[in-house]
Amino acid sequence: MSWVGSLLCGLYMGSGPVVGGLVNKFGCRTVCIAGGIISCLSMLLSTLSVNVYMLMATYGFLGGFGLGLVYLPAVITCGYYFEKKRALATGISVCGSGVGCFVMAPVANALLEEYGWKGANIIFAGLCLNCCVFGALMRPLELAVREVPPPNKGQQQQTDVQIKRGSISNAGQIPPQAGPLGLPHISSGIKLSE
Predict the structure, then answer these.
(1) Nearest partner of 139 among 104, 169, 115, judged by Cα
(2) Closest Cα to residue 165, out of 47, 81, 62?
(3) What is the pLDDT of residue 166?
């Protein structure tokens, strides 16, 4: 029986490489919403399990992958939205997992005593469905391009790429006026000349 929870945790964290590829292709918002739907369906399907193997497949494998689809985009999005205190924001975001485990343990026990394991899983499915709402709140960031005049007359004019608040999905596009080899000139705010 302990395999069920272990599979959920293992796939929740182990699905990172696959989820990272999906985030690159479809964006954080879409992947997080899909994860909320998959994890909700897996919790609901687990209530129909007739043996432990079916519970391992629905709750462990499917639920773990669905929650992995929610977790990684949530952490990645912090890096997009925070520039000055990015490490602090990511730390608080990741710390939410531990706080959630600490808070949800007594809640899960109370739900198990009141509604049984099937009723508790239905309630958890509803909580997982809330991830779709939070995924929809991941507003995309827009890519803004502005011309930067060259410091010396002999140099070419450069294109400065900055991320504006609005759309993550456009972050991989190359601006119309790219630098040498088709790559954009990206300004990081770090001045190497000083």
Answers:
(1) 169
(2) 81
(3) 46
